[in-house]
Amino acid sequence: MSDYRYPFKSIPEMLRESARKYADKTAIMYKKEGKYISLSYRQVYYRTLQVSRGLKKMGIKPKDKVAILSETRPMWVLADFGILNIGAIEIPIYHTDSPEQIAYIINHSEAKAIFVSNKAQYMKLLQVRDKIPSIEFVIAHDRFLGNSSLPVYTLFQVSEISEELSEKDQKEIEDFMDTIEPDDIYTILYTSGTTGNPKGVLLTHKNIISNVHNTVIKAKDFLGEDEIFLTFLPFSHVLGKTDSCYLPIYTGGVIAFAESIDTLADNMKEVKPTVIVTVPRLLEKIHARINNVIHEMPPSKKKLIQWAINTGIQYIKDKYIERKNPSTFKYNLADKLVFEKLRKVMGLERLKGFVSGGAPLDKDLNIFFWALGLRVFEGYGLTETSPVLCVNTPTQLKFGSVGTLIDETEVKVAEDGELLFRGPQIAKGYYKMPEATEEAFSDDGWFKTGDIGKIDSEGFIYITDRKKELIITAGGKNIAPQPIENMLKMSEYISNACLYGDRRPYIVALLTLNMERIIDYAKEHHLKYFDIKDLAKNEKILQLIKNEVEKVNKNLARVETIKKFAILQDDFSIEGGELTSTLKLKRRVIYKKYWDIIECLYAEDGSCYKCSIGSQQNG
């Protein structure tokens, strides 16, 4: 402990000290009955102790695993710290996960209890009750009747909200809090792996505390003690949890919960945030919304706004990319006439900046936002790195890069171009997966990211390619394509499948047909066709494949579902270059060969349906 350099030993200690330092300051804002209400740091801390008291009474002990299956809401914070205060280990689960995925995580982690947000999540558990024998009870935020096979209690019941916390109870919990060591596991955070089953990342208190501490130091010219973080990212994702929850608590900021991703536009106007931790998909939606508004304007206004945007983009390029010293006159005029009003209408007049992570951010999109006076700071990290490894700041900025290293973090480039990192934020490994843990580190202890990159002479890091096959959507969700492709190929009518979705809002599939079965189907249903390729365009074949895709979608989490697909006229083959000698997909070859069709799958105007495309948008 003599070399421990951080202000807190554990995550619960961080909240306790912030509750003392910022006692009556607002910690949490959330919407209730149409209005935002607030909880102070003192109130939040007290309520987490009440949750801890209840969990102790229900038999939860140190090192026990307790899961949380919920949308992002204040209950997450109370449940999270309620678990951690007594030394139990938290198991976050995405609220969009399917019952089968939830069952796997519960069984693998051996979770003893689980918090859920509502009856819909509880019903998922009931569907797999016989597969989750370790779960003894459920704690729900919403009030509803449970099933006798799976007892459910409300958060208020467990907290005994009307029963004041005795000095003895509080002392017992805080005394135990003091025994938590920095290297103790605080969470097992499951992230998708290429084998299909998710891997449980072992993160310690030190991993998170060091990452928050060094990120705050890095962003000292950007972050203060009075920030309002508008929070919407899932807390089952390390970016949302660390940078939208723990970092605000560390700095004494406000965690303002958005009602949902769909209400963000309204919530921004109500909260007027200073910081929004986001993924590129939100920025893409805001960009599309701005363009739609401009499109509907009369010609005179449209011309003014386009002039302002062009002026702003050129100014940003001159200043930050060309590193010139451009005149500010035209830009300041554009800001006064257009951008200042736009920021106010959006509720972003106080915004110091977006912090973007979880997926690559388009360089031109970033420049567009800076032109509007809305700064975006792109960073990089993984679940295994807590997550921040590097980030851009107001004084250290290069568009297209993911910034420079935070303190205590080292990087090097392996012979094959893979980025390797070392630092106190790096996870211990994977739960019950010694081989995966060994594979994740080099012989001399560097963590292997699976991403190809480069470092320039000023220390800025650029991600240039991905060594792993994982798809990272525009929303920052990691998706392993191979298991889904294998499910599709279980259909008697589909011979091969290749998924795509990197940096995109949804997953699409390129499918090839099992022609023997398709010909049989055509004969049985008296379909007329000129040749084999003609069948790939037949409407009844399209509907047949659509039904097969829907069967697979029913077993997937929402973010994994295939929204559109294209039927290719030729199967993948070694001769065609799409398959290796061992019949594995050559993804880059396939993407390049069928790029026009992939673009059609993402066309918004539906103009490309000549490509034998099927849609699962309403599936």
Task: Offer a quick outline of the entry.
The protein is an alpha/beta fold and 619 residues long.
Explain this structure to me?
The structure is a single chain. Helix 1 (11-21) runs parallel beside helix 9, helix 2 crosses helix 3 (74-85) and helix 12 crosses helix 13 (329-346). The chain is α/β, with parallel strands linked by helices and 619 residues long.
* Parts with pLDDT < 50 across at least 5 consecutive residues: none
- Structural class designation: alpha/beta
Please state the CA-atom Rg, rounded to the nearest Å: 26 Å
Strand percentage: 15-25%
The major sheet is characterized as: 5 strands, parallel
Count of helical regions: 21
The count of strands amounts to 27
Q: Could you report the average pLDDT, rounded to the nearest whole number?
A: 92
As laid out across the biggest beta sheet, the strand order is 4-3-5-6-7
Helical content (DSSP H or I, runs of 4+)? 25-40%
How is this fold's topology laid out?
Layout lengths: L10 H11 L4 E7 L2 E6 H17 L7 E5 L4 H12 L3 E5 L5 H11 L3 E4 L2 H9 L9 E4 L11 E3 H5 L7 H11 L7 E7 L7 E6 H14 L9 E4 L6 H14 L2 E4 L6 H8 L3 E4 L1 H16 L3 H23 L7 H18 L6 E4 L6 H9 L4 E6 L6 E4 L12 E2 L4 E4 L4 E5 L6 E2 L3 H7 L6 E9 L5 E6 L4 E2 L5 E2 L1 H9 L4 E7 L6 E7 L1 H10 L7 H4 L3 H15 L8 E6 L19 H7 L1 H7 L11 E3 L4
Parallel strand pairs: 1-11, 3-4, 3-5, 5-6, 6-7, 10-11, 12-13, 13-14, 25-26
Antiparallel strand pairs: 1-2, 8-9, 9-19, 14-15, 15-16, 17-18, 18-20, 20-21, 22-23, 24-25, 26-27
Helix pairs in contact: 1-2, 1-9, 2-3, 8-9, 12-13, 12-14
